[in-house]
Predict the structure.
Amino acid sequence: MPLRSLGELHTQLTGFVRARLWLQVLIAMFLGIAAGVAMGPGTGWLEPATAHTVTNWLAMPGHVFLALIQMIVIPLVVASIVLGMAAGGSVTQLRDTGARVVVFFLLTTVAAVVIGVAVALLIRPGDYVDRELIASVSESAPDGVVGETRQLKLGDLPARIVDLVPSNPLRAGVEQNMMQVVLFAALLGIALMSLSKDNARPLLDLLRAVQAVAMVVVHWAMFLVPLAVFGLLAQITTRLGLDALLGMGVYVLTVLLGLAAVVVMYLLIYALKRRESPLFFLRASSEVLLLAFSTSSSAAVMPVSLRTAEDKLGISPGLAQFVIPLGVTINMAGTALYQVVATLFLAQVFGVDVDFGELLLIVVLAVGASIGSPGTPGVGIVILAMLLGSIGIPASGIALIIGVDRILDMCRTTVNVAGDLIACMVLDVKKQDSASAHHNE
């Protein structure tokens, strides 16, 4: 029985592309900010207690959307990785492909972090923030965002490496420890490949069913996206005020400049390796990139990413079904860049001097923390707390950037999805050989 491509499940999501979900999201963003300003303390239209109650109700669809995506990301990633490995051929072929994929993702993530360090030190966005806003914004942090951070030490590294082994896969899923989840899925996939087809078929059929069910939940969640963006932005604007958001303009532009540089890097890699115009890639992947921008979740758009890779970019199904699900969990170049820029921005805001050793620590931690992050909205804020604690920056600084995180989350997710597709194109050796032969003729 042939393996079914996850790309075949994409039809449930293409309706959102045709309905221009990205445009609905942009409209919802502006309306949410306008509603937040209207209900904020600056206008006096609503009492603070009333505004708090109203915005909690408005933000409810957003929190439901986040919960739905977080609910299905673990089963979706596990099923996709195992099925992709089972479709990838022999263990030897899988080992070679896996090594190349991991090296590509690691090198591009390191390059993205270096770009983030460069733009943050060159522009120094923290110098443009009004210091009087810091205390008031920190006091306005949403519950559960600001907390204690634990500083990492070199002596903890061996224990962290041992912790990668999923001694309890269920607990790894509950805690959303994505590195353990990926390792568990990889071991399960390799074990299934060593079994006969008859013995492996029942579990593979079960995982296909899990995939299909997860995508039904994603389909339901998509209807909430415009309401989610509107409600969350209205809530955060009401709490922080428009002045705090406008004061973060240079920081937002710095992150966007860094992300744009990463996209240029990806396109240069594509042009050099494929000897094709990057315009072909941008045209072929435009739908999935717009959907990624709208949802802020690389996991949610995985079926469309697979269909795009297989049908529009011509990637072999075996390679696409292995690289795309793996990329959703370990390819977070956009997220890593954001974390570095945010950390250095807050260091500049709070006047924390970062020497070369601490800068190197930030780079290492950003790369390590981004690999294995869940492909769900808002996860970058959670990881950022660890980076801040590692160099002594107050965790309350997160409150200063959370107001603009929704916009940046959408952009960095788009970059992450583009990186997954570029990886497929670069690593598709057979098509490269074919294109090279055609070019030589």
Remarks:
- Residues 1-8, 138-152, 433-441 have pLDDT under 50 and may be disordered.
- The chain has one domain: 6-440.
